[in-house]
C-alpha cells in the first residue's frame, strides 16, 4: 500500500512540474500594446490649415491715367459719394472734345468700364477708384440714393419709387453696361415729379442723379 501511494505521489509531482514548465514558456499575445497594428491606429497630428489668400484690388486716384501703363482696362468704381466728381474715358490727351469717348458728372458713387482700346482715363473730385465691385448699399439691396449701382450686387431687380425731388430734376437710366456711352442706355427719363421704374434682372446697372431715395415697392 505504501509503495502504491508513493507511485501515485510521484506521478502527481511529475504532472505538476510539467504544467509549471508549460506556463513559464508562454509567448506574448499578438494584440499587445507594442504591436505594429496598435501603433498604426494611434491618431497623428493634423496638418496645419492655411488661410485663403486675401483678395487684392487695383486702386488709383484723380488725374490723367494712361491705359495699359498706369492702369489696366477693366471695370472700376468709387465706393462713396463725392460732390462734383467728373470722369472721362479718352481716345487721346489733346484736351480737345474730340478726344473724349464718354464722360460723366456725379455726386454719388460711379461705376465705369475702361476698354483696352481706350488711350486714357481722367477724373477729378472723385473718391478713390477701385476694382473692388462688391456691394456698397444696405444689406437688403432694396433702397439706395443717387449714383451708379450694379444690379444683383447693389440692388435687386424689381420696381422702385422715388418721391418728387427737392432739386426739381430727377434723371434715371437703366443700363446694359458701364461704358457711359449712349449705347449702354436701355431706357432713361427726366422728371420733376415722383418716379417709378422697374429694373429688370437682365439689366447690368441703374443710374440716377438729382432724385430722392429709391425704395423697392415690389
Detailed description of the structure:
The longest helix is centred in the N-terminal third of the chain and has 23 residues, at 2-24. The chain contains two helices and 16 strands. 13% of the residues lie in helices and 33% in strands. It is globular and about 70 Å long. The strands form four sheets. It has a four-stranded antiparallel β-sheet, with no helix packed on it. Strands 2-7-4-5 form a four-stranded antiparallel β-sheet, with no helix packed on it. The protein has helices spanning 2-24, 36-40; strands spanning 59-60, 63-66, 74-78, 85-90, 100-106, 111-114, 120-124, 129-130, 143-144, 147-150, 158-162, 170-175, 185-191, 195-199, 205-209, 214-216. It has two domains: 57-134; 135-218. The chain has 218 residues and is mainly β.
List keywords for this structure.
single chain; 218 residues; mainly beta; four-stranded antiparallel β-sheet; 16 strands; 13% helix; disordered N terminus
Report the strand count.
16
Radius of gyration based on Cα positions: 40 Å
Mean pLDDT: 84
Number of structural domains: 2
Strand content: 25-35%
Class based on secondary structure composition and strand pairing: mainly beta
End-to-end separation in angstroms reads 118 Å
What would you call the shape? Answer: globular
Q: List the total number of helices.
A: 2
Sheet with most strands: strand arrangement: 1-8-3-6
**Pattern of helices and strands:** HHEEEEEEEEEEEEEEEE
